[in-house]
Amino acid sequence: MKKGKIIVVSAPSGTGKSSIIKRLLEYPELNLGFSISATSRAPRGTEQHGVEYYFITHEEFKRKAQAGDFVEWEEVYPGTCYGTLKSEVERVTDDGRNLIMDIDVKGGLNVKKCFGDRAITIFILPPSKEELEKRLRGRGTDTEEVIRKRLDKADFELSFAPEFDVRVVNDDLEKAVSDVKGIIES
Ligand code: 5GP
After folding, report:
1. Measured in angstroms, how far is the CA atom of residue 90 from the centroid of ligand 1?
2. Which residues line the pocket of ligand 1, CB cutoff 6 A?
3. Which of 6, 8, 104, 157 to mutate to test the pocket of ligand 1 (most atoms within 8 A of CB)?
4. Residues of the chain predicted below pLDDT 50
5. What is the tens place of the pLDDT at every residue in 75-123?
6. How far apart are CA 94 and CA 98, in angstroms?
7. Domains in the chain, please, with CATH?
8. Which atom of ligand 1 is nearest to the CA of 74?
């Protein structure tokens, strides 16, 4: 059976990429499987091992990295690593399903380097910097310091947007979902 394609979705925090991915997974015709990353961070809220992430210890993460078990991995936040396991890519694409990844900007570009034309990289853009700030504040869960850090990081991440295959602005969620769906189908 033909192996599935790899769809990378990256964006600065607060851009709504997780909501877009969640909606896309509801379309059976896209034949998508979510790429469950490994992370050294602790589960949040109702998150479960093997659903949102594979939650592993920092030591286990380093061991796997050294053994070459990852396609890519990054220390996305100081002291917290995230990575895509080779076994995860095989789990989803070996039976012909398309793999959709929610990963950071640098990881997304590394996946493209690794898989070339088998991968499409999609960058989700906020409508503006002001709107991004409004969304991050609107969550009401983060301190001013965390919001500032995310905004500074967003500037850095946005500078990589031209290196992605396509860019989609998330002004309206339904429109963004339909744009990304169209890109995957084509
Ligand atoms: P969170 O802790 O909020 O779930 O995720 C933090 C960030 O890590 C998000 O930007 C997410 O896209 C990124 N991320 C999740 N999994 C991976 C991965 O496997 N590799 C890389 N490079 N980044 C990831």
Report:
1. 19
2. 13, 37, 41, 72, 74, 76, 82-84, 102-104, 107
3. 104
4. none
5. 998 899 999 999 999 999 998 999 999 999 999 999 999 999 999 999 9
6. 9
7. 6-185 (3.40.50.300)
8. 22
